[in-house]
């Protein structure tokens, strides 16, 4: 059957259907996003089939190819669940929480969280590894101080994506200049103009929140209860901290994320048997089911009873639903039609840059994957930047300021789902505190309209 190009008015219908069903499910019924996204995928398939005359076999091929792109993320999610399970069972996370509560000044905790996660993420090139290792422990420390988990998650994500954005080891830091035609070094240095102001403002905001006494109250009695409960239920020792240091070292040495994190899970299991005298069976149970034990203190139980491969199944199914919707939208050409329509309004440099910032956000929402947002937007806007004589590093910076940075803010995006799964937060609730991620696109758009730091192509 002959395939027809689907017009903008029909291409936008699945997006409107998605927005409507998500609003009804989340705001009115208080249920998850899985079914609305899947229903929207089937509606998109119906539009593609009736209007575009696209066969189901073609749509299915697009879905399968898109899901293939997410399978690496799915495997990493499963392993992150294993890491959390064995690192709690072994006493690694309890030890980090124990020493953190003893050593860190509560008023400095939030900015320190941003800085710690920044250092780890720059060193590893991975926001996911950062959130699933030190991020898990920082959640425990912060809640021990009485800080809301969503605020802590905002600080962790801000720091993790600062490092992910600038690290030469990060896949997106290498992908963005490749799509734009810029060099890696030029890309990283050009990003500093938008990244550093956003980072400084983020640190100022979190410092102010930490110093403001009404933001949270530190209960010394509650902290003492947590410390005594941890020491009663686990063998707390600084030797356990060598495991995360070793794992981070393995990742820094450019070991791929999947084997690197899995080694971390295995080392956690070994630590559980050595330091906590756990059996091999209990380690295997923690790998799948996570840690589940009653400590005698509800606060500690809420911090530690989590993890395991099974804890990630809801997140993984959400990603698959998003990939089905994104695969149908891309294969049918509806995603490209919507994205290309944005170019009509890009009549000035400022508008072009704004369009380049908005398009990855749209793709992150519709396709649910940051790599697609960078690749599709890079392909779309490269010629427009060339025609205006703008250096490729302007485009690559926009791809990171938007595509990379906004991906953890969307619950069904692979990055958002990973952050939710690793940090144990609810969808959307943490987003208002991801100050770095919210500020970067705004500062980048400001630079576009004012011309600040926008460089011309020297070849023109």
Characterise the protein shown here.
This protein is an all-alpha fold and 460 residues long. It folds into two domains: 57-69 and 313-450, no CATH class; 70-312, no CATH class. The chain contains 22 helices and no strands. The model has no long low-confidence stretch (mean pLDDT 88).
Provide the descriptors you would attach to this structure in a database record.
460 residues, 2 domains, 0% strand, 22 helices
Summarize the structure.
The protein is mainly alpha-helical and 460 residues long. The chain contains 22 helices and no strands.
Topology diagram in text:
Blueprint: H1 8-29, H2 34-50, H3 56-89, H4 92-103, H5 109-124, H6 127-132, H7 134-144, H8 149-166, H9 171-180, H10 184-211, H11 220-233, H12 242-252, H13 257-275, H14 280-289, H15 298-304, H16 313-331, H17 334-342, H18 349-367, H19 370-387, H20 392-406, H21 414-423, H22 435-450
Helix pairs in contact: 1-2, 1-17, 2-16, 3-13, 3-14, 3-16, 3-21, 4-7, 4-11, 5-7, 5-8, 5-10, 7-8, 7-15, 8-10, 9-19, 9-20, 10-20, 10-22, 12-13, 13-14, 16-21, 18-19, 18-20, 18-22, 19-20, 20-22
Low-pLDDT residue intervals, each spanning 5 or more residues: none
Instruction: Give the helix proportion (percent range).
Output: over 70%
Question: How large is the count of helical segments?
Answer: 22
The structure class reads: mainly alpha
Rg result:
23 Å
What is the string of SSEs from the N terminus onward?
A: HHHHHHHHHHHHHHHHHHHHHH
Spatial gap, N to C terminus: 46 Å
Count of the separate structural domains: 2
* Global shape: globular
Strand content: under 5%
The main pleated sheet reads as: none
Give the averaged pLDDT, no decimals.
88
Q: How many beta strands in the DSSP annotation? A: 0
